[in-house]
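Exam review. A common question shows you a sequence with its structure tokens and asks you to describe the fold in words. Practice with the pair below. Do the first one on your own.
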Amino acid sequence: MSSFNELDQTTRTELEAAAFRRLLQHLDDNKDVQNIDLMILADFCRNCLSKWLVSAAESRNETLSYEEAREYVYGMPYSEWKELYQPPATAEQKAAWEAHHAKKNAAK
């Protein structure tokens, strides 16, 4: 059995892409998990994934708009997803985000 780092680059890239697609499917299957909760717990959210896709495209001299990337990540236009699945943040979520953000800034 070989380790991940011993796999050829094409195979590693394909496995990474499959894992990314599975992450997107998992997020799509769990729409009740809100972006603010992801940010509080993991310091990233669906919008971050969209920005990372744009950045990856730019590093390869490809053009991908933020809105195109968000539509890919969300599986629909962001405005539609937000209307259907994103309730306003609760006071508890806002307080947890502020505490997370303050702790992160204090660590810098």
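Now try the second one, then compare your answer with the model answer below.
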Amino acid sequence: MLIRIVRLTFAPEHVTAFLQIFQESEAQIRQMPGCRHLELWQDADDPRVYCTHSHWESAADLDAYRRSALFGQVWPATKALFSAPPLAFSVHPANLPATADA
């Protein structure tokens, strides 16, 4: 599983437009092959900062979404609303070795 987090900063006057884009596209994103989870977070201290948090079966599934027509519509519309560059990263759950209790 691949977890993708994208931090998005908007001009205050563009937050409503972003939320509309997200609401109109979230169900379609969730239906993309390999998408297992999608949610939107809002920064606790800065109401114009949001993060998308998604889970993908594989990096290939995320890449396929990023090459899709849906992404080709959603991302440019969202990107036009930014007031700062986005910060995106992918992570895997850590597989820590089991420890023996003393």
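Model answer, second protein: Strands lie at 2-9, 35-42, 49-56, 87-91. The two ends are 32 Å apart (CA to CA). Full marks require stating both points clearly.
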